Amino acid sequence: MRFRRKPSRTDPSAPRPLPPPESYWGHGGDYHTWVDFLRRWSTGEDGEDADLDARALPPLAEDQFLGETWERLTAHLTGAVDVRLRAWAERLVRALAAAPDEFGYGRELTQARTGLREVRSVAGHSGLPTGLRTSLTELVDRHIAEIQEQLERALDDYARAGGDLAQAERRRRTLRDNPLTAVTSSPAPGARAPATPSPPPYRTDPWQSTAPGARPRRRVIPD
Predict the structure, then answer these.
(1) pLDDT band for position 55 (50/70/90)?
(2) Which among 191, 190, 170 has a CA at the least distance from the CA of 103?
(3) Lowest model confidence (mean pLDDT) among 4-18, 110-124, 133-147
(4) What is the DSSP string of 93-161?
(5) Is the pLDDT at 195 greater than 80, yes or no?
(6) Share of the chain above pLDDT 70, in %
């Protein structure tokens, strides 16, 4: 009975196993760096990990990856932004409900905008391609506008249900004086500021320009 010889590692005829995907980029490369950041950031770990800094993320280009890989990365981005926004909205609702007065209500709205700026900074990260950066920022801004509208509708519902109309109007005034949508009026993070056109050259009138201390000139107007 003959046994087939097991191919050795040095046997050129032996099939070589494919390396795992991570080996193509060492530890996972830029893809792994972004996915790891998004996983931790979406769960709010930035408050616990000092090394979680979006500014350190590497730039990405779509042609770096295969189509399926790029789609997975885009899904990670949109999913992380969605989770972060949902958690932010839940915290805001609880904080507003616990606000003792109009000052506290306005303070919670102001503090909530800080969290929104952070979400926009990741959605509009300068390391993302322009198209993806723009679409993600627009997605965030639409969500912010929807939250603002929901807060307004909640006041309408409160008034229709027989609530204190004066209180509802005071709360509405506070909400509109401290709008969450104020963060969307700033340029999208990562976007270049529009160039400021240079003013036209100023031409001085020699009859109106005089040296300091000089006697004023007289203009002769013929008949």
Answers:
(1) confident
(2) 170
(3) 4-18
(4) HHHHHH--SHHHHHHHHHHHHHHHHHHHHHHT-TTS-HHHHHHHHHHHHHHHHHHHHHHHHHHHHHHHT
(5) no
(6) 68
